[in-house]
């Protein structure tokens, strides 16, 4: 695989304007990331909507429009199991913190819990009135948050399968949900352009973030330390928000995202980067501080929908409309 | 982490005021929160111990071992171990990190066990007090259980023989460790408070703080204060000197002028109420809470001033065991008749300004003064570009937490609660969807087959 950073077709990073920005006092000592394609995992019969590494780093799960979830070995790329049962395509999956359970949200309006050891269905959670768009496990593994096309955010008790709360969260499909590190807050985002932060205990809205253009927000994620948010919007931007001040601190641009719900993730194993897929079938890595494109990963043949960064190693997984799951590794 | 976004005025709520939930699993007799406050252990009349998840109000685990009513529960500070004791002459130390064989350690005694409290640092050491028997310090670190009897006769200047005889008849009713674990505090049926060294098992200090039987001793979370309940209808708070709660590796020696003095008394002089159970508020322990005998009220006093802050009214039921959440304004109390656990909390009103970023909440009307450049027209692209250029702030996003600090209870997908759904009593969790559906089903079955209420 050629070094994509030297690819002439890659769009140039947004030129930093040196007139107004003070020159960085100390140049970052970190080298640029050098990810290269390691495995291409074939098996899904339709576009792959989401990939997630398990929190223990051993497994990779992928969900697809072909109604199945596949579990792969994160080290070898070996196919381990296929979870079947959904009646329609799956939009999002998430791992429980103990890496034993997967939750999936599907267009068949159900949320399902799967035992990964036996590849069996544990429970079906019914309640959403429309397709389920996004799912997230709480850090203790006791609560599930799901967002749906019915514009509501639901909280579920994992042990009993009861719906604990239904929050009338947004006025458009809820495209992303994520718990913060200690499980006290949930962030949700929607096509109505709002990002809302909720108190888990009371179900009340604590903060609303909105960008001037009200571009539909399609993915949102808390930073590892829980102080910031990463939000992807359909104006081809990924933004880093300081939710305490309600202020956008960084805008990452260069990729293309105007139609699909594309995930973005934090890449913090070496240095701090933001990684996101793009509709030009590439994967973009930005430096968190400088907002410059650090690397562009080329390999997919169609829109890249999902990306996931390995919790401890320099590994990225990606998936897209070309039905492929790809694993990228930085060996240097 | 959500604290920074919460309304500071609602955070200022020190004690709960609204009945929020009712938890039910069998007939509960005693409850206790763990140190983190995510689990509530409940001991039942039938000897089962169940753990409730505080966040979801659902059953997290069922521990079976006792066959009679559970009397006392104590958590280890790490939250992995729980000790329970019951009227069936047994104390069981549960390891919540294990299942099946080896998950519990049973210690048998010669009498019903009224109190068993784990050592704050050593999960293989606990102190127990028995019904009409001598208390013990029990070491379960080896397969052979080692029980060391603790003295009860208070330490006081030698005097008449009759006094010595009556002292020897005293019984220890309650025993707990101090916060650093080097001392044991015991209360006797004659109102004496004894301080015993954990290392030598000798009484170091005794004082008579009450004329009645001491029924309960409890430390605040910080270990700086002690509260006692006794049959003379007075609750006393005692300030503990730093030698009793400062952590140290070696057992400290008591200063020569060591005394334990009463800080405040709490009583109802009008109604002469007897108190069922007493506890500190979470955190610093600034409040003292008590449930009342033959009464439906829960009293909350301020500890330092002794002023009655609030009387919580709840369901028409007398309360037994009563616990305060370690960090939140939340009280859980057990109803004696129904055995349900009632939870009081604070209802926070929604802040409307949180729903839209450009809204602010005003106390009163303000004249709005527009800024000089407020309606100036700037080319949109220009402003956006300029704003992006100003995004130079350094951000630290941190790393993912991969090492699991502290103990986390395994989430059981199917909690074994067989035979617990008695006489139509449903566990009412925060989500009421399930319950409603069940009730509807019940109604149908009534219409169908004459109301057998198939729960």
UniProtKB/TrEMBL annotation, chain A:
CDD domains recorded: WD40
Region (Disordered) location: 1-34
Taxonomy, superkingdom: Eukaryota
Domain WDR5-like beta-propeller: start-end pairs: 40-328
Keyword presence, Calcium: no
Gene Ontology annotations for the cellular component aspect, listed alphabetically: histone methyltransferase complex
PANTHER family from the UniProt entry: F-BOX AND WD REPEAT DOMAIN CONTAINING 7, WD40 REPEAT PROTEIN
Protein name, per record: WD40 repeat protein
Keywords noted in UniProt: Repeat, WD repeat
Organism: Ascodesmis nigricans
WD repeats mapped onto the chain: 41-82, 83-124, 125-166, 167-208, 210-251, 271-296, 297-332
Automatic annotation (TrEMBL), chain B:
Localization terms from the record: Nucleus
PROSITE patterns in the cross-refs: WD_REPEATS_2
Source organism superkingdom: Eukaryota
Major place of residence: nucleus
Keyword Nucleus in record: yes
Protein's UniProt keywords contain Ligase: no
SUPFAM superfamilies in the cross-refs: WD40 repeat-like
Segments annotated as WD repeats: 63-96
Compositional bias segments (type: Basic residues): 432-445
Cellular component terms (Gene Ontology): Set1C/COMPASS complex
Stretches the record annotates as Disordered: 370-396, 417-455
Keyword annotations of the record: Nucleus, Repeat, WD repeat
Biased composition, class Basic and acidic residues, residue ranges: 376-396
Record InterPro entries: RBBP5/Swd1 (IPR037850), WD40/YVTN_repeat-like_dom_sf (IPR015943), WD40_repeat_dom_sf (IPR036322), WD40_rpt (IPR001680)
Protein name: WD40 repeat-like protein
Lineage, opening ranks: Eukaryota, Fungi, Dikarya, Ascomycota, Pezizomycotina
């Amino acid at each position: 695989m050629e070094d994509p950073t030297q690819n002439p077709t890659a769009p140039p990073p947004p030129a930093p304007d040196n007139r107004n920005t003070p020159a960085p006092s100390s140049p970052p000592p970190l080298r640029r990331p050098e990810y290269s394609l390691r495995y291409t995992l074939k098996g899904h019969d339709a576009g792959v909507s989401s990939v997630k590494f398990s929190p223990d780093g051993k497994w990779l799960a992928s969900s697809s429009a072909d109604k199945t979830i596949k579990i792969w070995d994160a080290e070898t790329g070996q196919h381990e199991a296929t979870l079947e049962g959904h009646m329609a395509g799956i939009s999002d999956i998430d791992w429980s913190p103990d890496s034993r359970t997967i939750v999936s949200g599907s267009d068949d309006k159900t949320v399902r819990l799967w035992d990964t050891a036996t590849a069996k269905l544990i429970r079906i959670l019914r309640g959403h009135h429309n397709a389920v768009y996004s799912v997230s496990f709480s850090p203790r593994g006791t609560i599930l948050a799901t967002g749906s096309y019915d514009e509501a955010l639901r909280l579920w008790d994992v042990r009993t399968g009861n719906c604990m709360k239904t929050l009338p969260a947004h006025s458009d499909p809820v495209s992303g949900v994520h718990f913060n590190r200690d499980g006290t807050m949930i962030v949700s985002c929607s096509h109505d352009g709002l990002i809302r932060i909720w108190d888990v205990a009371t179900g009340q809205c604590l903060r609303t973030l909105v960008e001037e253009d009200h571009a539909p927000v399609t993915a949102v994620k808390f930073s590892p330390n829980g102080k910031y948010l990463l939000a992807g919007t359909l104006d081809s931007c990924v933004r880093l928000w300081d939710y305490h001040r309600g202020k956008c601190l960084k805008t990452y641009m260069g990729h293309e995202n105007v139609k699909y719900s594309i995930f973005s993730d934090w890449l913090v194993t070496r240095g701090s980067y933001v990684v996101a897929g793009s509709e030009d079938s590439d994967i973009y890595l930005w430096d968190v501080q400088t907002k410059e494109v650090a690397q562009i990963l080329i390999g997919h043949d169609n829109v890249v929908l999902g990306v996931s960064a390995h919790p401890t190693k320099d590994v990225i997984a990606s998936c897209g409309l070309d039905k492929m799951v790809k694993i990228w590794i930085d060996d240097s | 982490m959500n604290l920074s976004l919460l309304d500071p005025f609602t955070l200022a709520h020190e004690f709960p005021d609204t009945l929020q939930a009712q938890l039910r699993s069998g007939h509960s007799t005693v409850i206790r929160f763990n140190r983190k406050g995510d689990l509530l252990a409940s001991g039942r009349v039938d000897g089962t111990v169940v753990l409730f998840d505080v966040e979801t109000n659902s059953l997290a685990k069922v521990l079976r071992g006792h066959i009679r009513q559970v009397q006392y529960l104590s958590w280890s500070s790490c939250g992995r171990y729980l000790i329970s004791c019951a009227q069936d002459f047994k104390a069981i130390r549960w390891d919540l990190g294990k299942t099946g064989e080896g998950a519990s350690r049973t210690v048998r005694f010669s009498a019903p066990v009224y109190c068993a409290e784990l050592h704050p640092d050593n999960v293989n050491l606990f102190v127990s007090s028995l019904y009409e028997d001598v208390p013990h310090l029990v070491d379960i670190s080896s397969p052979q259980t080692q029980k060391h009897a603790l003295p009860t006769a208070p330490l006081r200047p030698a005097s008449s023989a009759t006094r010595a005889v009556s002292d020897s008849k005293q019984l220890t009713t309650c025993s707990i460790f101090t916060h650093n674990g080097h001392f044991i505090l015991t209360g006797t049926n004659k109102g004496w408070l004894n301080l015993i060294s954990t290392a030598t098992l000798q009484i170091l200090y005794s004082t008579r703080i009450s004329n009645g039987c001491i029924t309960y001793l409890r430390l605040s979370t910080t270990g700086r204060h002690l509260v006692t309940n006794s049959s003379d209808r007075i609750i006393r708070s005692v300030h503990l000197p730093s030698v009793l709660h400062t952590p140290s590796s070696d057992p400290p020696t008591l200063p020569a002028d060591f005394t334990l003095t009463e800080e405040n008394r709490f009583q109802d002089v009008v109604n002469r109420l007897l108190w069922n159970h007493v506890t500190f508020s979470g955190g610093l322990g600034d409040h003292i809470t008590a449930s009342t005998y033959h009464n439906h009220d829960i009293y909350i006093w301020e500890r330092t001033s002794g002023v009655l802050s609030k009387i919580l009214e709840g369901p028409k039921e007398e309360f037994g065991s009563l616990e305060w959440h370690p960090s939140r304004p939340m009280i859980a109390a057990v109803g004696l008749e129904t055995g349900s656990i009632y939870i009081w909390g604070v209802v926070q009103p929604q802040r409307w300004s949180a729903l839209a970023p450009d809204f602010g909440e005003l106390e009163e009307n303000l004249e709005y003064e527009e800024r000089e450049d407020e309606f100036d027209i700037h080319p949109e692209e220009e402003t956006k570009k300029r704003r992006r250029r100003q995004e130079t702030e350094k951000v630290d996003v941190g790393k993912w937490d991969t090492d699991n600090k502290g103990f986390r209870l395994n989430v059981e997908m199917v909690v074994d609660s067989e035979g617990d759904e008695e006489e139509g009593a449903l566990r009412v969790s925060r989500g009421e969807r399930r319950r409603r559906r069940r009730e509807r089903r019940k109604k149908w079955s009534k219409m169908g087959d004459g109301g057998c209420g198939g729960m």
